[in-house]
Amino acid sequence: MNEKNKIGVKTSKKKSTSKKYTKKDLELIITSLEDKQLRLKAEFDNFRKRKDTEIISLLKYEGKNFILDFLDVLDNLSRGIDTYKEKDIKKALTLVRQDFIKKLETKDVKPFGEVGDSFNPELHEALTTSSDSKIDDDTIVEVYQSGYKYKDLIIRHAKVVVNKK
């Protein structure tokens, strides 16, 4: 039956048609909601742990980019030592380079990649190969650029020449 309200708009009375849930239906709904809540909690815990790991990693290796910048300076010192002919300049640059390497080692930065080492693709980048029958296979015969580890992280691979028979 339609009636007019105070504004003059017709309205109709609706019968309540809500579904009656059984006890089993309600138990299923509760189980479903508990499952969703448990999954959401697990997802949040995983997110929190992932963020904690990222923060710890950032703090552990916070000086990585700073160190990488100074490795370029160290490379330039090494090039200077190789190119200068005057003994006094070479000696001074060598002393500065040695001091620089000692300071890096106090910060847990260690060089690697020496002539005679075995080639390891996780540590070294082979720029080219040479063929010398007197030297074993996969032996480093020349180092273009030393590699460096910062704590347990390789921050720069050594660029080397590897012997292949």
Say how many strands there are: 8
Form type: elongated
Supply the number of helical segments.
3
According to CATH, the homologous superfamily of the largest domain is Head domain of nucleotide exchange factor GrpE
Q: How is the main sheet built?
A: 3 strands, antiparallel
Note poorly predicted spans: none
| Helix/strand order | EEHHHEEEEEE
In order across it, which strands form the biggest sheet?
Answer: 3-6-7
> Span from first to last CA?
101 Å
Helix percentage: 40-55%
Polypeptide structure, described:
This protein is α+β, with helices and mostly antiparallel strands and 165 residues long. The protein folds into two domains: 23-58; 64-163, Head domain of nucleotide exchange factor GrpE (Nucleotide Exchange Factor Grpe, Chain A, domain 2), CATH 2.30.22. The protein contains three helices and eight strands, in the order ββαααββββββ. It has helices spanning 23-60, 64-83, 87-106, and strands at residues 2-4, 10-12, 109-112, 124-130, 140-145, 147-150, 153-156, 158-163. The strands form three sheets. The protein has a three-stranded antiparallel sheet with strand order 3-6-7. A three-stranded mixed sheet has the order 4-8-5, with no helix packed on it. It has a two-stranded antiparallel ribbon with strand order 1-2. A hairpin with a 5-residue loop joins β1 (2-4) and β2 (10-12). The protein is elongated and about 100 Å long. The model has no long low-confidence stretch (mean pLDDT 86).
